[in-house]
Queue: 2 jobs
Job 1
Amino acid sequence: MNTSLSQNIFSAAQALMPGGVSSPVRAFKSVGGQPIVFDRVKGPYAWDVDGNRFIDYVGSWGPAICGHAHPEVTASLQEALEKGTSFGAPCQLENKLAEMVIDAVPSVEMVRFVNSGTEACMAVLRLMRAYTGRDKVIKFEGCYHGHADMFLVKAGSGVATLGLPDSPGVPRSTTANTLTAPYNDLEAVKELFAENPDAISGVILEPVVGNAGFITPEPGFLEGLRELTKENGALLVFDEVMTGFRISYGGAQARFGVTPDLTTLGKVIGGGLPVGAYGGSTEIMSMVAPAGPMYQAGTLSGNPLAMTAGIKTLELLRQDGTYEKLEATTKKLFEGILQSAKDSGIPITGSSISAMFGFYLCEGPVRNFEEAKATNTELFGKLHRAMLERGVYLAPSAFEAGFTSLAHSEDDINATLKAFQESFAEIQK
Ligand code: HOZ
């Protein structure tokens, strides 16, 4: 595979941007080699600047659930573009997307649009504290809620990928209010509540973890958190930036039947444009300015292009059979991956739900981040390179979930599984 143009561009980028990138994980640091520089994307594919084509299981880290640049999404964007790129004033498109989100997501009666998942989580944290009058928050090891100060404690995603200690620049006084527990461990949460009476504003989590690989909630875990938060006068917050409209149309909360007090969203609801959102009951959301005193604002929030792409994406997703198709595609892919690793004698464990999957190159089970760390990251790096050589683009980290889309055809899955079979055979030597 010739990647000379990618290499030249990435080398030049080193002097222009820290690490040559705009976001850390994409720099390939944990898998070795140089990143592929993308030129264009369409459906399930990405093409690099050297003209190589890849079947893509990153999907821009989640938004591309209908496939990249879906023709209906791009057509509505072209139409919207004629009316301008940013209003900084109310627009009807916000009402439409808000109605769609409220209809779909059980916990959301009112929503505020922002520009990224990080921004949504940052704002929800302030809202948790404003509503309860308490400063502390419980998060789980390996869960990632963006890069706001209070969340950079035992975080997943790039922090886990690069094995970084908690970030310099984050004041100790800030993180003193962040309490952590292992995911899937209700007893640990119970203890934190007992040790900090009337001080914890709430519990925030990825209801299915996608930033520490892919970890699913054990039966009773989400239900248990719902009870514990209620008992302790604290809020339950689901960060559904990854899982929203992906684990099901109503997110993980609809799929698992547990309704949090607040929810954050991003990725899919922007159809590939920068977006985020947070929402909950009318009572809690009425705290947000200008309805209430909790301040939060944004010049580009509710951007008409982002709203347009989000609306069209949700319209495509709510068609009959969509999630059945996503589930079947992902299941076939995931089971094939497990089988080919086993055929090569490589230990593997993992899971898939709807349009998300993940695997660890170790014996299972993986129920929390500590157990996830048993994965063989060196072997994963080799696998990543072998798959790339065969035209398959996996997340360049052993600690990021994989994403499928409606555009991945049976042929794409078969070609991917052939690549896995060959790659596992190659790397076990
Ligand atoms: N935080 C995202 C992954 N969970 C984005 C990573 C990237 O774009 O580098």
Job 2
Amino acid sequence: MELSPVCTEGISTDGCIIKSDRAPRKSKVPRDVEVDIEFLHKAVPQLAKVFRIVDKIGEGTFSSVYLGEAQMRDGSRERFALKHLIPTSHPTRIAAELQCLTVAGGRENVMGATYCFRKEDHVVIVMPYMEHQAIVDIISSLTFEEVRLYIYHLLKSLKHIHQFGIIHRDIKPNNFLYNRNSKMYALVDFGLAQGTADTQIELLKVVRQRPTQKGGGSTGKQDTTHRSKAQPRLLHPKTTASTTASTSLPVPSRQSTDLTRLSKVPRPVFGEKNLNSCLPASSTTKQAAIMTELVKPIKTEDPASRRYSSASRGPVAVRSQSQKPQRILQQGLTCNCYMTDRVCNVCLSRKQQVAPRAGTPGFRAPEVLTKCPNQGTAIDVWSAGVILLSLLSGRYPFFKASDDLIALTQIMTIRGSRETIQAAKSFGKALVCCRELPRQDLRTLCETLRGRRPSPDDEVTPLHGASKDSAQHPKIPDDTPTHRPTDGISKQHEGGVGQTLSNHPENSSSKDASTRLDKQTSEVESSERGWDRVPDEAYNLLDRLLDLNPATRITAAQALQHSLFKDL
Ligand code: ADP
Ligand code: MG
Ligand code: ZN
């Protein structure tokens, strides 16, 4: 599809589309989708002159995406994706998204924009439609070669946008469309993009992330159920629903009744779940383990947050569960909500540290989770690493966290707490963790999760329990799903690393026999898919992508030169 000029009031005159196919639509879509399509037609009537809108293909918090068909001059029919942005989006933000698509898109696995329609505050971005499969649906059947190519093409798109000084900020499989049959790839969704200091995207120089704008909440734009901007939650790992409710982001105020439909809670591809809420009250080990705390280093510039420095907000000072928040007490501040399930006014009034945190928690880099103010293109590379980890281990999502501290703890579980603390130090954050979590060997971890190695769950491995043979057996959190790879993907995709899903060994011998059979079948299947000969290079690249320190993390351009891709 060739790029055509984008216009704001209607379709460009030199566009190749001549008319919509107004043939009566056979109603195959559900009633609520029909209603949404009607709504879109009313909001942007000129669409109907060009497109027959046939289905709704995506709905997020900040947009709905539709499939439209248009008849081209040569008589052929072409399909387009119509992204209807919620009317409360900031105009500059919309223009920046469009500029990313038009300036950097249309090549190198980056989606381009064809047209843009606007009526009043309704904007519809038109893109070539790319048929794709959701990773969650195919992850269990992917071959290693497919995974290798997928990551290669993702890195290619990242290299390209990073050359333009675009930081995507929301790299995850839902935003990297993949057509398995035609081997096509496309990076989409620049709704959260930011510019580097020398970005070539003019509008990214002016957009600044706003806390109440798209994705500004601590849990990312997809997570409306746990959206929370008040950081005190970091101090109070037990705090769940009540805090969330009292601190949820304001719903955009300009919504009319009709528009509420556009911003309704999306059906999540994978439900995020607050880990805290599934911890049994007695699970002190696990609670202790997540008592990681971020506190601002003493040196930092912000006097307000220094005063409340043991609050969640800053860089990290780690405190064990039993310790009193000494610094608060010393400062004479009366805060009595520590370790309770509520947030006091003192905590609610704490000044927020400002750093970009958009994105989806499970894909956020350590420097994002710790609110490091200097964030660069390396954050996208980290997210690509999380995707590779997911694909190599066959688990999606891999990290499932409803807030930043849980996400950070999950990272520590895989990459090691000492290493994480060390890296955080390098970018000016003090991070304290009350117990040491050893770094895992990535191959052992992935092979165990794939069921290619005896799973330590058979012996019941405590989450952060010390084990002598940690080099051999990864310590997988005891709330890690432990089902075999032959288990249905529906079960798999429910369980990221952070989900409770126990799979206790059954006792009956017939079950044992069928389990053995399952295992044999799955071994044959997985060797056919190349999972019995994953080269060391794959885990070496993974290690480089998941470098905790953004300064030494491999870049997308360097990663493309990695020996894993030498033949490409
Ligand atoms: P949001 O900002 O709401 O996440 P996206 O731009 O990510 O919006 O689009 C949401 C979903 O719509 C995508 O995950 C994808 O499934 C679908 N989609 C977006 N653009 C296209 C496209 N050009 N072709 C096909 N599907 C698309
Ligand atoms: Mg998206
Ligand atoms: Zn308090």
